[in-house]
Amino acid sequence: MTTDHSAASESFREAYYQIAKSILESFPKYRPPLDLFVYKDESATLETFCRKGQRLSNEEVDEVHSLCSAGSLFVARADHAVYFKHIIKQLDLVLIDENLKQTEIAEVIIQALIVRLEDFINQPVRPVFEELYKDVMVLTEFLAQDRFRIKLFMRRLAVDEHKLSAHSLNTAISGLWLFFETRKDFKRRDLDKATLAFMLHDIGMSKVPSFILDKTEPLKRDERAKIIEHALQGGKVMHKLGFAFDEMVQAIMQHHERLDGSGYPNKLKGDDIGWFGRMTAVADSFSAMITPRKYAEALPPAEAALALQNDEKRYDVKYTSLLNAAYVTNQF
After folding, report:
1. Which of 132, 169, 136, 141 is nearest to 154 (CA)?
2. Are residues 27 and 33 in contact, defined by beta-carbon separation less than 8 angstroms?
3. Model confidence over 85-143: pLDDT tens digits?
4. DSSP type of residue 62
5. Which residues form the HD-GYP domain (predicted)?
6. How does strand 36-40 pair with strand 16-18?
7. Peptide bond connecting 265 to the previous residue in cis, omega within 30 degrees of 0
């Protein structure tokens, strides 16, 4: 909130947002999608200006914008679902809205990326990818400003169901946490590439028929082959889009490879698996283990991290030990 209303800030900041002009402009002009409140200096209280969906006159629209410019227009935090729904359509607004808490920004970014990922999974073509790319850049800008913000996202991993969009985002979040822990010196473009690669490591699964993914009984040989081919399919998708850089290739082609050679698609062993491929393998498996799947119950994150550390023949202990230690010491 502005310094003009510092006294009100303490009273209202937990219950209300001071709405930013850029957010207000994203609303329908004549019918705000939520209640608007105006701050009254004389009484140091908020009064209702208009109710959700109320038709505003031209004069009232002008007054709303004037109040907003003066820092006197508020919305209730109880309406956060509606507020967030509008922000996710223009996600870059979270970077300039000083009235949102960091926890709220993380929640908005998660919601926006899930929507974008679902769109891209359903239609992996250039125009849809470009919308996803813009929102990924908002995430990386938010994290570039303070790498420790990744913990806000680690505390918000989706664990209720194993959807490809949520799994992709969980893998990106846990992969980025490992990236920050192990790559102390990196440039912004390295962060951008890592984020995209983690997030799209499993895009080839969008090419696997849903009836195979939904099966609860053991897969037939040809069905199993379709699953194994998803890495190759993912590589084709991203190559076609012109984003087949090294981290992307490793993430897609190596996230199912294992140090002992038991993985797929190429049964690589040891040092034949790149550092980014190893990191993605840990993030991918961790993200899968913490959600319920057709063939396995979900594990609490701490148990999943410990299980991965104990599986040192297949996973790089450099990464699994860091993840396990973080849960042992309650870093999240």
Report:
1. 169
2. yes
3. 878 888 998 898 777 889 989 999 999 999 999 999 999 999 999 999 999 999 999 99
4. H
5. 142-332
6. unpaired
7. yes
DSSP 270: G
H helices of the chain, in order, are: 6-12, 21-24, 58-69, 80-87, 102-122, 126-145, 150-154, 164-182, 188-199, 210-213, 221-228, 230-240, 246-254, 275-289, 301-310, 317-328
- Give how far the C-alpha of residue 44 lies from the chain's centroid of Cα atoms, to the nearest Å: 38
The whole-angstrom separation of Cα 298 and Cα 160 is: 9
Quick: pLDDT tens for 207-232: 887 777 777 777 777 877 778 889 99
> 143-181: buried (b, 16+ CB within 10 Å) or exposed (e) per residue?
beeebebbbbbbebbbbeebbbbbbbbbbbbbbbbbbbb
CA dihedral 226, 227, 229, 235 (to 10 degrees): 130
Domains of the chain: 3-79 (no CATH), 101-328 (1.10.3210.10)
Using alpha carbons only, how large is the chain's radius of gyration in Å? Answer: 23
Distance CA 302, CA 288 (A): 13
Question: What residue ranges of the chain have pLDDT lower than 70?
Answer: 1-13
Residue 7, beta-bridge partner list: none
